[in-house]
Structure formats: structure tokens, C-alpha cells
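Incident review: delayed structure delivery

Summary: a single-chain prediction request sat in the queue longer than the usual turnaround. Root cause was a stuck worker, restarted by the on-call engineer. No data loss occurred. The affected request and its eventual output are reproduced below so the record is complete for anyone auditing the incident later.

Affected input:
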Amino acid sequence: MATIDLNADLGESFGAWSMGADEAILPYVSSVNLACGFHAGDPHTLRASIQRALAHGVAIGAHPSYPDLLGFGRRDMALTPEEVFDCVLYQVAAVQGMCAALGGRLHHVKPHGALYNRAARDADCAAAIARAVQCINPGLILYGLAGSCLVAEAEKIGLRAVGEAFADRRYTPEGTLVPRSRPDALIEDVDEAVAQARQIVHQQSVTAGQGHVVALRAETLCLHGDGPRALEFAQAIRRALEADGVRIAAPPNE
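Output delivered after worker restart:
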């Protein structure tokens, strides 16, 4: 039986500003990545998000980013590897501590936004992230773009890495994500997203621009929680995969 993890980026509300349909999406995913306060989220939102995740029995991950609240972590920043290390260490340690205080445990780490994209192509940045995660807990899993530098650098130091793919993002022929600055970056049709999810799971590939089929080995699929049709996408993708006989589960800590 094929197995895939369905993850969602949640806990991105901040103060009086509410974002995402977190409570509604939780029943359809097996793991969550919670904002740590640098791109979104705050202590109250993080605590509440952890408690909701525990109640639903889903794996909890930290979602560290560049320190960029105004840009939602989607603007690249010229941080040194040492600064990246410190930022990730600070954010992940906070989430791990709060998880422990609430009776849970941290399962994984997945960088957010521009930091995620930089770590996919920049080995020094990727190595800094991997070292920070390993320093906090070498048993944590690091989620990164399938086939990326982040996965490779984590594996170099003996940290377990899980390749991630996206049901609602388009890919380039090189296997990278189409930048969000382009109008075709996001898949907005539910049927198209379902078809891409099934192709990733069953064929270990994705069809990129101009019909190029790109090999893609992924253990987790991201379902974004902040789009206007996020819940509809999550429901349709989970139902389609389960109808195919796919088991939905977070990757086990080894």
C-alpha cells in the first residue's frame, strides 16, 4: 500500500488578524507546520495551534522563516549561514519547548517561504538549517523540496530528511517551483490539483511546463492552508488518494 503524508502550513494568524481555515483543514492532514512568529503567528496562536493539532492527533512541525513579518517571509534576505542557523535555532527551540509544555512533542521542521526556496538551491544555507535542527534534536525530521540541497545537506550529517512536493504549485522543467511572482505559479483548479497529487504519489513524477515530465520522489505533499479554496482542495485530494487505496500518515521518527 502506498503511503503519503499530507501537511499544511497553519498557525499563521497574528494578533487581531486571522488567516486560514485551520480548524476545518486539520481533519484532512496528517502533519502541520506551525508559524513560529518570524513571518506570521504569535505565542497565543502557536499555543492554540499546538493544542488543536494534539486534539486531532496530527504530527507537529515548526515552520521557521526569515525575520520578515511585513513580507510574510516571502522576500529573500541576505543572511549569512550563521544568521540563518541562529534564526532557525531560536524559532524551532521555541516551538519544541511549547510542545513539551503542552504534553506533546515536535516531529519535524519545514522552512517557510523565501528561506525554503533559498535552502533548496543554496548548500550553505541548507547546511546551516540542518545543523540547527540537529543541534536541537537529532531525531527531528527535516522537510524540504524533493531533490533539493536541503534534503542532501540534511542527509550528509545523518539527519532524516523527507522530500516534499506540492499539489497546488506548478513546477519548472528543472524540478523547482514556479516563482510566486509569475501568474501561473499556483494551481487554482481542484481537479488539476487532484491529478497532480495522484501523479506524484503513483508515478513519482510531475508534469512541468511544455509537457516535460520530471521525476519527483516525495514522502509528503503540502496542502496550503491560506488560499480561498484551501478546504476544498484538502478534502478533494485526501478523498481521491484514499479512494486509490493510499494510506495517509506522517513519516515515522526513526
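Verification: Helices lie at 22-25, 43-56, 81-101, 113-121, 123-136, 149-156, 190-203, 230-243.
Action items: add queue-age alerting; document worker restart procedure.
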